[in-house]
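Known limitations

Files may contain more than one protein. Parsers should not assume a single record per file. Below, a two-record file is shown to illustrate correct handling: read the sequence, read the token line, then continue until end of file.
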Amino acid sequence: MPEGRLLHLRDTYPVETAWAPPHIGDELRQVRAAAWDARLAGLRAAADARAAAQHCDHDHAAAKHKLAASYQALEQAYRQRETVFATVMADRADWEAATRTQRHLAIAADAELRRRHPGQHFLPLRSAEPAPATRTQRDELTLTLNQPGEIEQRITDLAVGHRTFADKLADRQSQTIPSKDPDYGDLGPAFHAWTSSGQEPILQPPKPEIPPSPRILERAMDRDADWEAAD
């Protein structure tokens, strides 16, 4: 490719990474684990309430019923966050599939320019993806029994970002390459999604059999003879 084309491809890397949804796999695991713990705690509290009721300890049973309801509300709050995070991670997978070809071309163009001009200084490729969550943001995901229903602003922003990303992805997938002949129509999609190569595994010939040495055969025959004599 000419160098102008390589420079253009290289400059598309920050453009392709700028609309990437944040990678929040750690936060998704955190809220899923917290939701599971809240569910188990609620089940234990409900079981304690039933046991106390059977022993006519109504005060203790009422307290445990209230505690079980609190844990159920806490689990639901975590599940709401889990739904938002899972949606964002699904968007992340869609973005990776939609931009993988362009990102690989940008990286290859950068490598080719550096190969052609080893003495020239090129700024390193930098992703424009959103920064990972801070420790404070991670700590905000830990809820308490007293206030389980408050939705953080970041969760709301992620839900809004999902709708923005869906519009961006739909617009990208609808773009086509126009033909020079207006009567011919378009030449196909402008951005091709990444697809697997679909190649079958290479068939390997069977390994050749290694015949045993005459000494091993002789020892095996002697062993069989000893077994027959013992019988």
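...continuing to the second record:
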Amino acid sequence: MNRALVRLLQKKERELRERDIAYRITGLATRRLGWLADANGLDLSALGAGNIPATQNLKGPANVREWLREARADVLFEATSLDPHTGQPAIDHIRAALETGAQAITANKGPIVHAYEELRSLATAKGRRFLFESTVMDGAPIFSLFRESLPAVHLRGFRGILNSTTNVILSSMEEGLDFEAALRKAQEVGVAETDPSHDIDGWDAAVKVAALVTVLMGVPIRLDEIKREGIGGLSGEVVSAARAAGKPYKLLCRAQRSNEGVAASVRPEQLPLADPLAWVAGTSSVVYFETDIFPGLAITETNPGVETTAYGMLADFIRAVSE
């Protein structure tokens, strides 16, 4: 992910210059390399290839706050792996960035679900931005759409397909593979993790639902308040037969506002072929919004790649340093 972001920063250098945006990367942190910082700037070509020049005089801070200080960071790009139950360590990283005066941009959904109000308030108090466009549907403009282009619109609910791993598995089972073979195929093409349980059990989709409900509907919702069921109980025969009968299975995400609050769910559902969501296959995603002004407003992305997610972070970077 971060390599894709570095390559995209280089690719869009002309467009950034046209916006009077100049930058240098002064810090890098990974499990393999640890905390690396050089306030004079790191070698972008080497970073894009995943290498660190041995000749570069790098400091090795001991923790995130020391790292941010050594790097003299103005912007933090946070892209650690999701822990759906705690949101860590991303929350601590973002909190540290904001407290030390940096803008905070993340592709991690956990901080929105577990610490959105705290981090938003901290960003406001520090005069900084906390942005997260890449957290749901990669770089598709969802949060910025409502924040910047739909003022005074009230979101009543949404439904969508938001997890590409389960969508790939279901699509493969429709073609005749059993569950295990479909999972292996998803892993071979790089869609599924070695441990795919967060996707298969519906946690990833539930976190995305919670993020949308919390930010766009203004209702903080806990993960245990979302009715969650994964696809692990579906067999290849059942999924294939459902498609042949014209009612394919999809892992459907839903949220609906009522007088009692917001009810949300993630579960496999059979959809009629007349429903556009029934035709969303492979790594594609879609979300349909119902608002007080627009009865139906859809955002669809078709087979996104890692550059799409990186673009969401790039767009947030432009927003953060342009305002």
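Parsers that stop after the first record will miss the second one. For reference, the second record is described as follows. The radius of gyration is 20 Å.
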